[in-house]
Design goal:
Elements: H1 8-23, H2 28-65, H3 68-116, H4 120-127, H5 134-174, E1 177-181, E2 184-188, H6 191-211, H7 214-237, H8 239-244, H9 248-300, H10 306-323, H11 325-328, H12 330-358, E3 361-365, E4 371-379, E5 385-388, E6 392-394, E7 399-404, H13 410-418, E8 424-429, E9 436-439, E10 448-449, H14 450-455, H15 465-474, E11 487-488, H16 490-493, H17 496-510, E12 514-518, H18 526-539, E13 544-548, H19 553-557, E14 560-566, E15 573-577
Parallel strand pairs: 3-8, 5-15, 7-13, 7-14, 9-12, 12-13
Antiparallel strand pairs: 1-2, 4-5, 4-6, 4-8, 10-11, 14-15
Amino acid sequence: MPQTFATPNFFRALWTLAKPYFSDPKERRSAWGLLIVIVILNLAGVALSVWFNFWYNTFYTALQDKDYETFKTQLLYFTVVAFAFIVVAVYKLYLQQMLQIRWRRWLTEHWLNDWLGDKNYYHMQMLGLGTDNPDQRISEDLRLFPAYSLTLTLGLLNAVVTLVSFLSILWTISGPLDFTLAGHAISIPGYMVWAAFFYAAAGTWLTHLIGRPLVKINFDKQKLEADFRFHLVRVREHAEGIAFQHGEAVERAGLGARFAHVFTNFYDLMRKTKQLTWFTSGYGQLALIFPFVVGAPRYFGGAIQLGGLMQIVSAFGEVQQALSYIINAYSEIAEWRAVIDRLTTFRNGLERAQQVAAQSQVAVATDGAALNVATLQLDLPDGKPLMQADGLQLAAGDSLLVQGGSGKGKTTLLRAIAGLWPFGKGRLQRPGDDQSLFLPQKPYLPHGSLRAALSYPRDPAAFSEDDYRAALAALDLGKLESQLDEDAAWDQRLSGGEQQRVQLARALLMKPRWLYLDEATASLDEASEQKALAALREALPQTAILSIGHKPALQAFHTHKRKLEASAPGEPAKLIAAT
């Protein structure tokens, strides 16, 4: 749940997210160098503002006294200092954007590495760790985090330095306010400073009171927008299945319901922003006239001239702006808080996935010359036993078919062999990943050229033109030869059977020594399946193959057969010899 931004947890989370970049050995020199230069430029901007404050006094006094020579001199000074102010403003923004994009690049690279490394993306999804829409967190939140962090922290620094710089000026030039109350003479020294403090304190408290719900609203906004976008993509990716089953009304209702949440959230955001804008706009407008009203008694009393009044107004404005920093930036701070909450949630989910994988008692050694499973118990994520696989062996050149009823753990066995399933205990040994290829029931064909889809995840240049053509011809996909370099969404263009044959063609290209098939021919008709299996055996005579499937053609293709079967309903299945 998002919290109010002014909490220790907020600053701890901010530091946890920011520290790695600024302590990275390759980036810290340039990161700190840019940050220091930006801070110096911010301080220079404040110094120029202080100069302008004194300039107001001299300039407006010259106007009041009709001192033309001083007027011309002050215009010349203004031109020079204004040019310096422009240079400082331009390079402050330019260097801040440079640091922002470099920081975002580093964050994106490292978070992608952590997310994709050690199969964490898979474990996070499998474990249901509440990290919805990781694409949005990596693309959008990692864009907003450095932007808001730099803009708002540097803005706070600027406000603090401005406050310190102008407080003494305002205290000195505003002088005391003397008046009589109930027969008592009262004198308030530096009364404009106290006026600025009380004005800003009241405004900040009311702003926070009005705008506090924006933190949660902004947190929910990104989640709901990403969820709506995700389901739009789902409709595009599953267009044929939806069209065949006339599911448009259901999809329309589902998308409409999700957009209704987006609409409601945005309406809440509008309503709360309107309330906040009513107050902040009124606060800002009143701030324009407030120093004139408060400073008028001394001006009309002859204690100060017009230049002094204008300097007081300028100094009061700077102090008031500095003290009102939270008021002016409240909406951005609320969204920044939401961004940090989302990234922290994502990071916690990532660390939890890494922790679960590290604590796994399913040990997979990839230095073996054969597949050897002495004892292996696999559990469900809730700890309930799923299956027991003991004495499973597969030597080079052998082929083994594993069958069993739905939900008995056949695919989970392959996941454990691949090192994807952390739940359970046992030890298995198999050849390394460079010799192994796992083909799931639902093929993954990346968008791009067909050549890249066939060779995935290897470099397409690793195989010759003849290799591609031979692999396609062996699986009756010769019609696709002319489309090898065509970019397309192949998972939508090809039928389910064609997609599985493209995946099998991948095995013909890579020639793994160990091939694991999970219902990899389930979408093929019997004749196509027999031809595909024959092509595999002919092209890969020395390859060990472990298959999961039910179709009759698989029986003749494998020399060994095992079956997962439970001794009683509710009991974990065991791997036994098939009859």
